[in-house]
Amino acid sequence: MDLIDRYLIAVRRQLPRDVEADIASELTDSLRSEAEEHERIAGRPLTEGEQAELLKKRGHPFIMASRYLPQQQLIGPALFPYYRQALKFVVFWVVVPIALFGGAIHAIYSGDPAAIVGRVVGAAWNGAIYAVGIVTIVFAVLDHERVRINILENWNPAKLPEPKAGRPVPRSESVMSLVFALVFLAWWTTLVRAPELMFYADAELRFAAAPIWSQLYFPILLSVAASVGLHLVDVVRPWRTFATSVADLAINFLNLFIVTQVLRAGRYVEVTGAPADADKVALANHWLNQIIGWTFMIIGVVIILEVCFELWRMVKARRTLRATISSTAL
User: In terms of Cα–Cα distance, which of 44, 34, 25, 35 is closest to 2?
Assistant: First the structure.
């Protein structure tokens, strides 16, 4: 038994029983004919090394057998677009919200708000694995049974929307902004509490929020919640349209209002301590409020620059759209 015979047996073992005889016969004729042609040119029988080289060109027995199988893909091209959209929907609109709200509720009732990050990450990871697995299995079965989804086959070209101005938004940027907004939201809603006691120059100091923060609680909550929604939209659809840009501008104008009210208050934190540490308490009050004031001045400038930059990008996107339409029309 030469290498060709051993190769044919190895291939045959990978084939379905109902077709293995026909495929093995076809492959035998092909291999033997090619080997005989090489022997005729060489004027002698092929050596074992030459047979091995011939078989190596055909591929591993497993790969060779797979070429004769009826289905070469887990999910074929006919169903793959629907599969990809289903994964996006399940991950971003089912797994992520359930993980976030489930983690928040767990943190509230467990008495350990600091565990929210681990809870959310764990829930999102497990949910994503189950969701992707279930969706993949469903579409693989549909493809194996040759079920075809024709929901998009009867589309009407006359109903194609007019192109709108927009720009791509990197998902990495959206994810980082979303994480920051969620962390701030968890802190602002007291799911995670900041320490109220610290030591400064051997003095025991306590910090309390000034009245301005209770006055601005709901405007800040609205701004952060709207930011979370906007970043979620950008993650799912990384294309900033005119509507989402307007929403971003509205959030920034709300932030400017908040910054203005904060700066007008002039007092942001109340530091208290023992009477013996009155000098240290006064110094901490002065510098801490000064630093917070300067920080919000910088934040205000950054927001103004962001508004101007977003307006410029909206104008640029509109010009780009016009240029694209003109070049397409030509």
Answer: 35
